[in-house]
Amino acid sequence: MATLTAVSACAATACAYNDNGCSAPAITVGGSGSTASCTTFISLDARGGLPTANGQVGACQRLECKHNTDLLCTASSIEMTGDTANCASYEAE
């Protein structure tokens, strides 16, 4: 089984899964154009997910990303930046 990539930091403080870091068990990276983003992002007043910030990338929908192999992220870790959780590790081939 492949190892899942860790979400090492997330700046999207409005996300219900951001509780001093990504607390979603697994996120999906998607988006369109030149920006990859977290499609698991949801803006709610409540906080959810794991009790600790140990989020991982469960799937990557950006086929053109150099870190994507078989729809899994192969980067050592990723950072989500900005209010809408953009993937700072995204690099198109």
TrEMBL record:
InterPro entries: DUF1540
Domain DUF1540: 10-41, 60-86
Protein name stated in the entry: DUF1540 domain-containing protein
Annotated organism of origin: Kocuria atrinae
